[in-house]
Amino acid sequence: MRELLFHLRGVPDDEADDVRELLKEAGIEFYETEAGRWNLSVPALWLPDGSQLAEARALIDAYQHERYERAQADPPPRSWWANLLESPVRVIVYLGVIGGVLYLSTMPFMGIGE
């Protein structure tokens, strides 16, 4: 009997590709279903029979644990406030350039009502 192995709805493309490749390298036979035209079906990876379910689940769990560890090791994005404190001149110059572009973009429309 077929077994649902891995839902693909909301999964990033790189993760789905990695899981497909992981299963192919392990020699685990699987097939994929798509969401369909109206997004009503279940996009997922399925096993044709449940004989390799435990092995496949162990591979995917190990991969997702490794992916989680890599994501935790990456530093979080810097905030605007942290950038301002680190290099205030650069932030002020960028804000000046943004203000200049906005001024030049809206200047032709300022005199329309006069």
Put the structure in a nutshell.
The chain contains 4 helices and 3 strands, in the order E-H-E-E-H-H-H.
What do you see in this structure?
The chain is mainly α and 114 residues long. Helix content is 56%, strand content 11%. It has a 3-stranded antiparallel β-sheet with strand order 1-3-2, covered by helices on one side. Helix 3 packs across helix 4 (88-110). It is elongated. The mean pLDDT is 91.
- Total number of helices: 4
Average pLDDT score: 91
Please mark out the parts with pLDDT under 50 across 5 or more consecutive residues, or reply none: none
Helix content: 55-70%
The overall strand count is 3
**Given the helix and strand composition, which structural class is it?**
mainly alpha
**Order of helix and strand elements from N to C terminus:** EHEEHHH
Distance between the termini: 77 Å
Radius of gyration: 25 Å
Strand content range:
5-15%
Q: Within the largest sheet, what's the order of strands? A: 1-3-2
* Biggest pleated-sheet summary: 3 strands, antiparallel
- Note the overall shape: elongated
Task: Please outline the helices and strands.
Elements: E1 3-7, H1 13-25, E2 31-33, E3 44-47, H2 53-73, H3 80-86, H4 88-110
Antiparallel strand pairs: 1-3, 2-3
Helix pairs in contact: 3-4
Characteristic key phrases:
114 residues, mainly alpha, three-stranded antiparallel β-sheet, 3 strands
